[in-house]
Amino acid sequence: MRLLIGLVGACWLMTVGNCPAAEREPWTTSAIAGTPDPQPPYVVEPAFPHLTFDKPLDFLPIPGTNRFFVLETNGKLLSIVNDAGTKSADLVIDLRAARPELSSAYAIATHPQYEQNRYVFICTINGADVENGSIISRFTVNPTDPPTIDPASEQIVFRWWAGGHNGCCLKFGPDGYLYISTGDGGGPDPPDPLRGGQDMTNVLSSILRIDVDHPDASLPTAYAIPADNPFVGMPDIRAERWAYGFRNPWRMSFDRSTGDLWVGDVGWQLWEMIYRVEKGGNYGWAITEGPQPVLPEVTQGPTPILPPVVAHPHSEAASMTGGYVYHGRKLPELQGVYIYGDYQTGFVWGLRYDGKSVTSHQVLAHTPLALVAFGEGLDGELYLVDYERTNTIYRLVPNPRAGEQVNFPRRLSETGLFASTAEQQ
């Protein structure tokens, strides 16, 4: 697949519409499907088989209820009953109707005291290459069933540059503070065009940590900077930064057992990364892309560059999506396993980490999904969010064919791709 994408891309760049492959009749004899590896231990099945959404991007439980929030990229926030038989979703708020300039919605988080204050925090984007176009807002959920939100309850909490890579995952940590992921604010090329990865004077390419409960009146929006953030008091550094050096940290989560913060970072040309984030950690971009040097001449930030826990080459993955450490009951053999996936290939992996090194790492499932996010239920069960291909929420289940060898062609003559293997035609 990677080779075919590369060839198509190269032809497109040379002359749109004049690629030699476009003049050929399509191959219909290919016997290549799947992978030569044995069947993985899990497959996916729809968690809510009667429901589809419009490009869902985030999914999380509503505390104190038997419902989930589903956030669509179009700005609609929905709620659904946590029941496989549920057949409809209820509109909570249409953010774009309230704010027409909204271009997309990215993420949602519920306050740790949601059952008392009913606060939710939503990240939305207003355009591209816009100063302060990435916006985190607090809303108050009405005490109705199903839940609704009055747009007038919006309070803007934090803003920063909106570009191609916005990150914008929201998670409350076990310390009660809000953690925010930000990307480098640019597009795919050139790498790190705004040089946000190591420039500490802005908030790009970072995991930020802010206090949303005790706003500092001297700041432009409704938040404060925790006194124990790693760069507080240091000159020419935005003290909101908790860690930095990410390209586009796409989905993060806290291990509900250990408190560890895990992040999936989307790579550039060669690598996709998984990080276990440390306070003050520097993860290299754009001096490095995981293990690969990119711009070694860039001035490094104030802390050493730390390696990824796992780095996948682009022969395996192409757009990393961070997941969760599993703490459910339905798949007991996965207890304590960090489960994550890839948006492009649909592969799902699991790893165990003992605090110093990876002790196990394996492919858990080959899926047909565009894995844009994972979700974790109040009971610790894991959900997978598909973007565009089926627009459905899934879950992992044991594969009844686990370990079986697939009838994958082993010889060129078995592939169906050659009229003559002797002549390589």
How does this model look, in words?
- This protein has helices at 2-14, 95-98, 114-117, and strands at residues 42-46, 56-61, 67-72, 76-81, 90-94, 104-110, 119-125, 130-140, 155-162, 170-172, 178-181, 206-210, 241-244, 249-254, 261-265, 271-277, 288-289, 292-293, 310-313, 320-325, 338-342, 347-353, 358-366, 371-376, 382-386, 393-398.
- 5% of the residues lie in helices and 35% in strands.
- A four-stranded antiparallel β-sheet has the order 1-26-25-24, with no helix packed on it.
- A hairpin with a 4-residue loop joins strand 22 (347-353) and strand 23 (358-366).
- Mean pLDDT is 93; it is low at 1-20.
- The chain is mainly β and 425 residues long.
Properties at a glance:
single chain; 425 residues; four-stranded antiparallel sheet; 3 helices; 5% helix; disordered N terminus
Rg from C-alpha positions?
22 Å
Put simply, the count of helices is: 3
> What is the helical fraction, as a range of percent?
under 10%
Uncertain spans: 1-20
Q: Please, what is the average pLDDT? A: 93
Strand order in the largest sheet: 1-26-25-24
Counted beta strands: 26
Task: Calculate the terminal CA-CA distance, rounded to whole Å.
Answer: 20 Å
What does the largest sheet look like? 4 strands, antiparallel
Give, in order, the helices and strands.
HEEEEEHEHEEEEEEEEEEEEEEEEEEEE
Strand content: 25-35%
Q: What would the principal axes of the Cα set say about the shape? A: globular
Structural class: mainly beta
